Recover the amino acids of this structure.
């Protein structure tokens, strides 16, 4: 069982380019999440989805979009990357309901120049 | 929104020592989780503990919801315990999984 996979592992991107970070889980979890981790700021929630077909905004959604066409996949898109989006991005999933233990993917390190 | 403060920010231990990490939060919570981020960046869920006490091997956690704090105990620490420990909470009555993370406690265990 792979759990949660993220791709790419790392990426260097020119400012203004479009980028999609991929996240796939094989645990049939209902809920999925995207976080960014920045030094000194901890982890912050970007977007979430409690079930396939629905999405919601987290703490820092600006500049990002998500979709949840099916249970397993939750891609995060940067429409026009800016240097402030340089970060490590983590995808997570949970069954939903109670208890709502979250499980994290290995992360994607993104650098926007 | 809810504020989460962790202490101490940094901790250095000798292998075999015990430690207590603290998480204070500013409002009532119905979802509190502790995570360990190892030196390679992987985040592992340690406990889901909005109230009460749980134990898992050398680790245990207690949340006193009425006093708005949670404690993570590490006994007989090992070098593999090194990394950053995060507390994360969701405030209010909902349970959507929208966690707010503290800044973390960085633990270094020396052999």
């Amino acid at each position: 069982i792979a759990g949660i996979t993220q791709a790419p592992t790392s990426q260097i991107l020119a400012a203004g380019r479009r980028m999609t970070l991929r996240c796939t889980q094989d645990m049939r979890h209902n809920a999925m999440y995207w976080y960014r981790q920045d030094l000194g700021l901890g982890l912050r929630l970007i977007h979430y989805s409690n079930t396939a077909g629905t999405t919601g905004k987290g703490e820092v959604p600006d500049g990002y979009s998500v979709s949840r066409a099916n249970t397993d996949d939750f891609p995060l898109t940067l429409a026009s990357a800016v240097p402030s989006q340089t970060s490590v991005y983590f995808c997570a999933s949970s069954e939903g309901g109670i208890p709502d233990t979250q499980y994290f993917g290995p992360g994607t390190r993104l650098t926007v120049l | 929104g809810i504020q989460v403060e962790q202490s101490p920010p940094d901790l250095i231990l000798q292998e075999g020592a015990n430690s207590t990490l603290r998480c204070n939060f500013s409002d009532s919570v119905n979802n509190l989780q502790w995570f360990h981020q190892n030196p390679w960046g992987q985040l592992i869920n340690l406990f889901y503990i909005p109230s009460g006490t749980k134990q898992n091997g050398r680790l245990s956690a207690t949340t006193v919801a009425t006093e708005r704090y949670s404690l993570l105990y590490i006994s007989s620490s090992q070098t593999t315990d090194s990394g950053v420990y995060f507390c994360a909470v969701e405030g209010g009555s909902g349970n959507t999984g929208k966690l707010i993370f503290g800044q973390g406690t960085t633990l270094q265990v020396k052999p």
